[in-house]
Amino acid sequence: RLPPVEVFMASTTDLPEESTALEENKPLALNVDVEKVSTCERKVKVSVARDDIERAFEQAIGDLMPTALLPGFRPGRAPRRLVSSRFKSELKDQVRSKLLTDAMSQVTEDQKLAPISEPDLDLEAVILPDEGPMTFEFGIEVRPEFDLPKWKGLSIKRPSRELTDADVDESLTGILRDRSRLVPFSGAPATGDLIVANLRFLDGGKVLSHAEEVEMVVRPKLSFADAELSGFDALVAKAKAGDTVTATMTVSDEAAVENLRGKEVTLELEVLEAKKLEPPELTPALLAELGDFESADDLRNAIRRQLENQLDWHRRRQVRQQVSSALTASADWELPPRLLRRQAQRELERAILELRRSGFDDDSIRRHVNELRQSAMASTGRALKEHFILERIAEETAVADTAADYEEEIRAIAAQSGESPRRVRASLERRGLMDVLRNQIIERKTIEMVESEAKFTDMPFEFPKPDAEAIDHAVCGVVVGEEE
Q1: Is the pTM of this model over 0.85?
Q2: Which residue of 150, 219, 346, 428 shows the fewest CB atoms closer than 10 Å?
Q3: Rounded to the nearest 5°, which phi and psi values hold at 194?
Q4: SS3 call for 202
């Protein structure tokens, strides 16, 4: 769920708890005008009747009377008129805040608004007048209104594969590569070799960004947060230590720096060193380092379980993509760019949580995150539309999150990260990601319900081969979500 509406309260004098509500269950007499600015944006103008203002003042004074202290009077014995005069400023702030709270809550309910962000309200501009009604206005982003698409009986192709020993061998080779001995050599690097290089990115003669002594495995592509270079292996195929090679690359249309979007920039790559990777032997010491495995068979069994988790992620991802396409096919409503920019980083965080839960290594996560960053607005738009639709389905079918769901998710993340569930939960709470986890739980359970009503056809699946080396660096010097 996206962040709920928050009601803004001004600081006031401490008053008894009974003063926190006007006459219970008695609604305010409001005059409300709601203007539809766009699919998700509303501008709301509210007027609170004078009778409600006077009633709020009378209640606030009545609540204050028993504890009011005035010179020459015992507590609670001061005349009402003097209490009202002495505490006029505090009472006015209290009443203004209380009326704002009740009015905004009532407007949200009466107008059936489904807020997806905090209201844009200028508190300083709200004046409580001595005569006449109190008026104020605010902007708010709401869930779009739409007809729920048909979600039962979808036709879906489901990836199917039996894991083999060859799959385990290939994954083990990748694990051992990460612990390979790096042996410098003087020749030109080939695919699979590692180079250390200095990188500079230029727009004409202007240096946009640079990165020093970056270690990179030579692969067909070189991926950055906001651009991708094809032919990376060919570019460095004849480059030796001390050589500098150049290439042009196109900045993503959704890069953080607007005037560079879609522009060709120059990459200068200075090779500092080339190294061969020599995989280590699978000794008892290495088995212990990899996870206290007693034998190679124990390690292979663990790799098989990890591959099963990854296969499950690919299966869920492809099924979800088909479900999403079917559900959002008629979702032609536009989403505000401001909302997309704000949610882009949360979508990345959700993707990272899901990948970590499924046992992907850091290199795989970097590749996927770079892909998402290069199409941040488009991918966020699709994800938000899917989210709104799944949330509606969840509401209408009573899909809900439970404490057990959170425990299961956190336990799965902890198992893959090697941390305790307690530390994982603390980290998620500290970073404000429990809402992201909640969305993940609700959406997964709703997708599972949609799948239970779908018609499946199995199709062969092959694990994708990594063809890109992902570098955690933005060509423009700024990553999407960090512009401001």
Answers
A1: no
A2: 150
A3: -115, 135
A4: strand
